[in-house]
From TrEMBL:
<dbReference type="GO" id="GO:0016740">
    <property type="term" value="F:transferase activity"/>
</dbReference>
<dbReference type="Pfam" id="PF22191">
    <property type="entry name" value="IBR_1"/>
</dbReference>
<keyword id="KW-0808">Transferase</keyword>
<keyword id="KW-0863">Zinc-finger</keyword>
<keyword id="KW-0833">Ubl conjugation pathway</keyword>
<dbReference type="GO" id="GO:0008270">
    <property type="term" value="F:zinc ion binding"/>
</dbReference>
<protein>
    <recommendedName>
        <fullName>RING-type domain-containing protein</fullName>
    </recommendedName>
</protein>
<keyword id="KW-0862">Zinc</keyword>
<feature type="domain" description="RING-type">
    <location>
        <begin position="32"/>
        <end position="263"/>
    </location>
</feature>
<dbReference type="InterPro" id="IPR044066">
    <property type="entry name" value="TRIAD_supradom"/>
</dbReference>
<feature type="region of interest" description="Disordered">
    <location>
        <begin position="1"/>
        <end position="21"/>
    </location>
</feature>
<keyword id="KW-0479">Metal-binding</keyword>
<feature type="compositionally biased region" description="Basic and acidic residues">
    <location>
        <begin position="8"/>
        <end position="21"/>
    </location>
</feature>
<keyword id="KW-0677">Repeat</keyword>
Length: 281
């Protein structure tokens, strides 16, 4: 499992208070008497339903898992259940999730707004303006000086902010490289530089690996949960890569098992973050 370090989900303060449960008279659902394949709960008193992939869920566990995926920047809902050592990875439709998670009207609004936002960030270099919070597309990936049209219209004068530190741009003489704010730095590069090292318990010989990596394809920061094999599927670009050597899985598997140290060893900490065009396949 991989954990994105950015784009955390923020739950509404009016989150549901009562625990969800299925209606035992609902004949549109297939109820099963086995453990919840997401929460691994075996309580026989809790009614469970079967997803299209064959795995059992409760509305609580399904809602929680899908909210987690959204918080990690993933707008596609992938089954996390294990089949032996392999993940199911079947994609559920939003319609199926909405029904079996018994989403409330508020949750449906949250899900749909978040899914729309994430879909747009997948196609463009997008961030939320620190002034008005609307999404801004950066046209020039090498220019840190970004102009927000909404704030400029509201303020009656040009509003620019730094793509790197998200503070108002203070240095008009340097339109591209330095915003003029004290302490401005690339927070993502800082995370890559300062994150602790970890051991991957299921991967033989990997005892000192940076705990955070930038996806070699799209640049999103990912964190390994320290269990399972060394390969991760990126939540944004959907590419699989080796967390240890940073090669794509298709290349790494030519010389190494998913559960053994790569011949080239552990790749050093990354000093640059790949820039993703959004249309790479």
């Amino acid at each position: 499992m991989c954990l994105s370090v950015t784009d955390r989900w923020t739950e509404d303060s009016h989150a549901m208070e009562d625990e969800k449960s299925y209606d035992p008279e609902d004949r549109t659902l297939k109820f099963v008497e086995r453990q919840d394949d997401i929460a691994l709960d075996e309580d026989p008193s809790v009614l469970k339903a079967e997803m299209s992939c064959g795995h059992a869920v409760t509305p609580e566990s399904l809602t929680g898992w899908c909210k987690y995926l959204l918080s990690q920047g993933q707008y596609k809902f992938i089954c996390p259940a294990l089949i032996g050592k392999r993940k199911c990875d079947v994609e559920w439709s939003y319609q199926e999730v909405r029904r079996l998670a018994a989403l409330t009207a508020l949750e449906m609004q949250q899900f749909e707004e978040t899914m729309s936002t994430l879909a747009s960030t997948k196609l463009f270099d997008v961030k939320s303006c620190p002034g008005c919070k609307t999404l801004v597309v950066r046209q020039d990936t090498f220019n840190l000086n970004v102009h927000c049209k909404v704030c400029s219209a509201d303020k009656g004068q040009a509003y620019q902010f730094c793509w790197q530190c998200l503070s108002p741009w203070k240095n008009p003489g340097l339109a591209i490289g330095r915003c003029g704010n004290t302490g401005c730095s690339n927070r993502e590069l800082q995370l890559l530089k300062e994150c602790p090292t970890v051991s991957l318990s299921q991967v033989q010989g990997v005892t000192d690996c940076p705990s955070i990596r930038a996806c070699p394809t799209c640049g999103i920061l990912l964190e390994h949960d320290k269990t399972g094999c060394k390969n991760l599927r990126c939540l944004r670009c959907n590419k699989e890569f080796c967390f240890v050597c940073l090669k794509l899985k298709s290349e790494c598997k030519k010389t190494s098992s998913p559960y053994k140290l790569c011949p080239s060893g552990v790749a050093p900490r990354q000093k640059a973050i790949p820039i993703w065009s959004g249309n790479q396949r």
